[in-house]
Recover the amino acids of this structure.
């Protein structure tokens, strides 16, 4: 017997009104409370999964939206970029970029990768602190903060507008190559005008704590189970990370690609944010090949939330395959 669409929609409305969570006649919030929880459920601003014994939580910091103009991809025609966005069912006149932090809890340690925008870069971003707290990680609980590179959307969250430390108990670790470049007064004086504000944000964040920031070099184990991998090009010291526990592993992608709809499908495209475009493209090709060949789960800082999935091969290029969403920690 065919289903009448109006009957179906009416039935759906009744189900929602009566508690679609499974308790007839009960409001959704009351039904959720009745069902209880173990603190491992998902929520709109965070998403949990496991890597071996480690609990990984991605934290949404919001998004930034800008006009899409020629030059956003340096080596592609605007029409081609717009076509790629249209194919991904996204607007062709603007570009929206998500920001996602990663928290790793294992062995009593709470490690966070990057700090977000701190609410200083876009009115639609800066949600990380509320979402960290909702996920059970208020900022004072973070004991180690690992920075992938010094672009503002990754470091501004370290310090509040009034200059106070947002993560007062965290040891901060940064790539040595990033520190050497961005903290060099000579490099700042020689920088083009468009880069001056980036240098200023670095000094705002790090000058007050310069004596206590720890630096790591190249490929090294930063904390037990978390290894850094140089992925230079996007910035002079841009770094990605591999979390390993037994046979399980996770590639924390940082800014190897910006939007996957553009740069996973077109690895040779160079974003306006890539400081050395040729090197960034070569790094991207290497990382895409590694992720696809090893079938590694990854987290992408600028991927659609919850920002975790896989890289598959497609023709001569690649595609991003989101991980299957689970209602509780998977």
């Amino acid at each position: 017997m065919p289903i009448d669409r109006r009957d179906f929609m009416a039935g759906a409305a009744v189900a929602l009104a009566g508690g679609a969570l499974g308790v007839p006649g009960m409001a959704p919030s009351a039904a959720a409370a009745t069902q209880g929880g173990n603190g491992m459920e998902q929520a709109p601003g965070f998403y949990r999964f496991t890597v071996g014994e480690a609990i990984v939580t991605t934290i949404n910091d919001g998004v930034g939206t800008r006009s899409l103009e020629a030059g956003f991809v340096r080596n592609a025609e605007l029409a081609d970029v717009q076509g790629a966005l249209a194919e991904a069912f996204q607007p062709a006149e603007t570009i929206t970029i998500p920001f996602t932090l990663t928290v790793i809890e294992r062995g009593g340690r709470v490690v966070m990768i990057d700090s977000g925008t701190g609410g200083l870069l876009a009115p639609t971003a800066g949600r990380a602190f509320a979402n960290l707290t909702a996920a059970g990680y208020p900022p004072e609980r973070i004991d180690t903060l690992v920075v992938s590179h010094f672009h503002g959307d990754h470091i501004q969250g370290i310090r509040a507008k009034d200059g106070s430390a947002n993560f007062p108990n965290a040891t901060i670790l940064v790539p040595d190559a990033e520190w050497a470049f961005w903290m060099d007064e000579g490099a700042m004086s020689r920088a083009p005008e468009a880069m001056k504000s980036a240098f200023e944000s670095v000094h705002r964040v790090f000058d007050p704590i310069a004596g206590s920031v720890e630096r790591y070099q190249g490929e090294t184990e930063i904390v037990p189970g978390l290894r850094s991998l140089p992925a230079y090009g996007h910035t002079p010291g841009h770094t990605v990370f591999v979390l390993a526990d037994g046979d399980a592993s996770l590639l924390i992608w940082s800014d190897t690609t910006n939007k996957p709809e553009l740069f996973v499908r077109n690895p040779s495209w160079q974003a306006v944010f890539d400081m050395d475009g040729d090197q960034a493209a070569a790094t991207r090709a290497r990382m895409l090949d590694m992720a696809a060949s090893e079938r590694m789960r990854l987290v992408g800082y600028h991927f659609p939330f919850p920002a975790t999935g896989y890289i598959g091969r497609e023709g001569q290029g690649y595609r991003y395959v989101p991980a299957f969403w689970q209602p509780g920690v998977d």
Summary: The CA atoms of residues 117 and 153 lie 4 Å apart.
